[in-house]
Amino acid sequence: MPLASQPDAQKHYTYQDYLRWPDEVRYELLDGKALMMAAPGVLHQRIVRELVTQLTLAFRGKSCEVFPAPFDVCLSAADAADDQIDNVVQPDISIICDAGKLDDRGCKGAPDWIIEVLSPSTASRDLIHKLRQYERHGVREYWVVHPTDRVVMMWQLQTDDSKHYGNVLIEETRGTRASALFPGLLLEWDTLFPPPAPSPRS
């Protein structure tokens, strides 16, 4: 099914529609609405690349795998048919510890940990719409890295039956930081955001 240059805002799309679109067209589906994905900037890609490098090394030999975008994540039940799935996202980084959620097309079900690097074009999507979907579908930990403010916002799914995130934790990207899910895993923020070079003396 061809997709117009601008999707129909009134139309409800599913993963079945999504799979028919050309590969060069990058959209996400949130509650059936097709949302265009703009090409990320250089700083965004540098941060994603460094995070993926650190995470891949940290999880080497373990059951969890690291998948950077483009990588389809269907937020749905494992047995949901393609025409029943209307939430398909491409997080910057997905960490998945259950191999049963993986198939040749990507992931069906909630990743354990998702990291998004904020871009101006996706800020409201990452901080509002995708936050709600990740919470609703059971993503256990969600981080949003803000490149210009140099902070990271972290949400963790509560251990009770509420299926809600606790209060957001906001930290500066300095030194090291452990994931709540993987406390032995330390990310080196200074390699992502090197301190500015000292000003030359006059």
Word description of this protein:
The chain has 202 residues and is of the alpha+beta class. It has one domain: tt1808, chain A, CATH 3.90.1570.10. It is built from four helices and 14 strands. It has helices at 15-18, 42-58, 123-137, 189-192; strands at 27-30, 33-36, 65-68, 72-74, 88-89, 93-96, 102-103, 106-108, 113-117, 141-146, 151-156, 169-172, 176-178, 186-188. The strands form four sheets. It has a six-stranded mixed beta sheet, with helices on both faces. A four-stranded mixed beta sheet has the order 5-4-8-7, with no helix packed on it. A hairpin with a 7-residue loop joins β13 (176-178) and β14.
Tell me the number of structural domains. Answer: 1
Major sheet characteristics? 6 strands, mixed
Distance between the termini: 64 Å
Task: Please list the strands of the largest sheet in the order they lie side by side.
Answer: 3-6-9-10-11-12
Structure class: alpha+beta
Q: Per CATH, what is the topology? A: tt1808, chain A
Count of DSSP strands: 14
**What Rg is obtained from the alpha carbons, in whole angstroms?**
18 Å
The tally of helices reads: 4
Shape: globular
Order of helices and strands: HEEHEEEEEEEHEEEEEH
CATH architecture: Alpha-Beta Complex
- Multimeric organization: single chain
CATH class: Alpha Beta
Write out the CATH superfamily name: tt1808, chain A
Note the beta-strand portion.
Answer: 25-35%
Which stretches are poorly predicted, pLDDT < 50 over at least 5 residues? 1-5
Helix content: 10-25%
Mean pLDDT rating? 89
